[in-house]
TrEMBL record:
Name of the protein this chain belongs to: GP46-like surface antigen, putative
SUPFAM superfamilies xref list: L domain-like
Gene3D superfamilies attached to this UniProt entry: Ribonuclease Inhibitor
Signal sequence coordinates: 1-27
Organism for this UniProt entry: Bodo saltans
PROSITE patterns according to UniProt: PROKAR_LIPOPROTEIN
Pfam families with a match to the protein in the record: LRR_1
């Protein structure tokens, strides 16, 4: 069955050898010409980038080299090269404004692009960056970008780390991004995204951080199919319009250490399965929802839980039996906030309250009992 493929590989090798022979006999000038052209292209592209982002107004240090004629592109501030090819642009916090030009897409050797914490506005050039097939890391966070997330990025298969938070992006999460099989960080909080969480992202098995917190308008339920994203460690969904229940199947996310779902419209109870399965859960915050039922006794097994905030829900019953004793140990060391529920606490003389940095603060009975 593999035979045609093997033949094709052998044929490919012969071709490669032949082209090497041709290249050698034809002399090295040819390669030099190619390289010279690439270097010229990347210099021109970066000069366009400098102009489009109001280069003359960048902070002083960051402009070093960019306007001088005594240095190669690779010596300009923020540029890193491998064999004269630009692999990294790091101009975080450099006072960039203006827009991101599509010419940047001609720096095809680029692996890392970090222009975070600037004041760049406008959209991500629609198809302009698609030739950046080596791109792994894109930090555009804390700028003034607007427009939609580029659907076409699904073909930039090297992407591992995409941080676009704190901008003004609108539109939905592109379903096509489920093809980015190496993606490990997708950080989109603090934008104005809407739509739902795509079921298809269940294919992003390398994803370890997913954050769409504080977008305001993401709707729908938490997809139970995401139980297959077994590398998930941090999930931020707070400050949106999610409905439905916390999926029991997410108990399979045994790497999950932080889950924040505060400020949605979630209903139902805290899943019993999570207590037995999410052995790495350190932070769980679900304040300001409509959760009901009791705190499952199984949550006693979450030995690393350090921060638990379910204030402003309709939970009732008792704390899991081991928690009161654990409160003076490492468990729940940071915060236990269960105010505005009907939870029956029987620790010392406290009838309701919350725990913060190993201290009870303002014990009080509040809630909707
Ligand atoms: C290159 O040119 C710039 C601006 O003219 C100057 O400040 C810098 O000292 C020069 N560097 C070298 C190494 O000559
Ligand atoms: C970015 O956008 C915000 C809101 O539109 C605006 O208040 C702010 O001045 C802008 N910042 C810059 C540096 O353009
Ligand atoms: C991408 O590369 C192809 C082939 O080199 C070229 O024809 C095309 O213009 C490039 N696209 C962009 C947007 O730069
Ligand atoms: C995003 O912006 C908000 C509001 O300005 C700020 O509180 C938050 O720290 C920022 N997030 C990050 C990760 O910088
Ligand atoms: C959870 O994981 C188990 C074992 O890996 C698997 O059999 C089961 O189908 C998973 N459940 C869900 C809901 O994904
Ligand atoms: C909880 O449910 C009540 C009654 O349906 C509703 O008025 C309230 O807005 C809900 N709260 C949240 C945070 O969804
Ligand atoms: C925690 O320890 C302090 C001092 O060791 C003690 O006063 C307090 O009662 C303990 N609290 C609980 C909940 O065991
Ligand atoms: C718990 O969440 C509520 C509402 O989001 C917030 O006001 C409170 O400060 C949080 N508690 C702690 C201990 O962080
Ligand atoms: C609160 O818990 C204590 C001890 O578990 C129990 O004796 C008491 O009846 C409970 N109260 C309510 C209202 O559930
Ligand atoms: C509960 O309060 C009473 C009266 O204030 C006090 O005598 C008693 O020691 C307290 N119990 C605990 C366990 O702190």
């Amino acid at each position: 069955m593999a035979r045609p493929q093997q033949l094709a590989q052998i044929f490919q090798m012969i071709l490669t050898l032949l082209s090497l022979v041709v290249a050698c006999t034809a002399g090295i000038d040819h390669d030099d010409d190619d390289l010279a052209l690439i270097l010229k292209t990347q210099r021109t592209a970066l000069t366009s980038f400098f102009t489009a982002t109001n280069g003359p107004q960048w902070s002083d240090l960051c402009t070093n080299g960019w306007t001088w004629d005594n240095q190669t592109t690779c010596e300009w501030f923020g540029i890193t090269c491998t064999n004269n090819l630009v692999t990294s642009i790091n101009l975080a916090n450099c006072g960039l404004s203006g827009t991101l030009p599509s010419e940047l897409g001609q720096v095809t050797s680029l692996q890392d692009l970090d222009v975070s914490s600037n004041a760049i506005s406008g959209t991500i050039p629609d198809n302009g960056l698609l030739n950046l097939t080596n791109l792994q890391l894109v930090y555009l966070y804390s700028n003034n970008f607007s427009g939609t997330l580029p659907v076409g990025w699904s073909t930039m298969s090297s992407l591992t780390d995409v941080r676009l938070f704190n901008n003004s992006f609108t539109g939905t999460l592109p379903t096509s991004w489920s093809m980015l099989s190496y993606l490990s960080t997708l950080w989109l909080s603090g934008n104005r995204l809407s739509g739902t969480l795509p079921d298809a992202y269940s294919a992003l098995t390398q994803l370890s951080l997913f954050d769409v917190g504080q977008n305001g308008n993401i709707v729908g339920t938490l997809p139970s199919s995401w139980s297959s994203i077994t590398n998930l460690g941090t999930v931020g969904l707070q400050g949106n319009q999610f409905v439905g229940t916390l999926p029991g199947s997410w108990g399979n996310l045994s790497s999950l250490s932080s889950l924040q779902v505060d400020g949605n419209h979630l209903t139902g109870s805290l899943p019993n399965q999570w207590g037995a399965q999410m052995s790495n859960l350190w932070q769980f915050t679900a304040s300001i929802n409509n959760l009901t039922g009791t705190l499952p006794e199984s949550w006693s097994q979450l030995l690393f839980l350090g921060s638990f905030n379910v204030s402003h829900n309709q939970l009732s019953g008792n704390l899991p039996s081991t928690w009161p004793a654990a409160m003076n140990s490492s468990m729940i060391a940071d915060a236990l906030d269960i105010r505005w529920n009907c939870i029956n606490i029987t620790i010392a003389n406290v009838t309701d309250g919350y725990f913060w940095a190993n201290q009870w603060i303002a014990p009080q009975r509040q809630g909707q009992c």
